[in-house]
Specification:
94 residues; four-stranded parallel sheet; two-stranded parallel ribbon; 6 strands; 36% helix; 18% strand
């Protein structure tokens, strides 16, 4: 199976301090016309503000009939998603 092109590389810090900048990059591509792939391998820290933005992206993808794929999620992000019960909200791709 061929891996899809990465739409966005998530930053190491996915926290409230980067939320405004990240939101503008997240919404910049315009309408969702296919599954979106975010490289999540570099995420070292995330908080609720960062997760809310990922959920916003997921909602936008779902509304357009597509998926948000978190590719290569870091251990820190995977643990946080599992802890909060949000792992099933996203398509995780190793």
């Amino acid at each position: 199976m061929e891996q899809a092109a990465v739409d966005l590389v998530l930053p190491a810090e996915l926290t409230i301090y980067q939320a405004a900048d990240f939101k503008s990059r997240l919404l910049a591509p315009g309408p969702v016309t296919r599954d979106r792939v975010f490289d999540a391998s570099a995420v070292e820290r995330a908080d609720l503000a960062g997760l809310q933005l990922l959920l916003l992206a997921q909602r936008e993808c779902t509304a357009a009939g597509h998926a948000l794929v978190l590719s290569q999620p870091s251990a820190a992000l995977s643990e946080l998603l599992a802890l909060l019960g949000l792992g099933e909200c996203f398509t995780l791709e190793s």
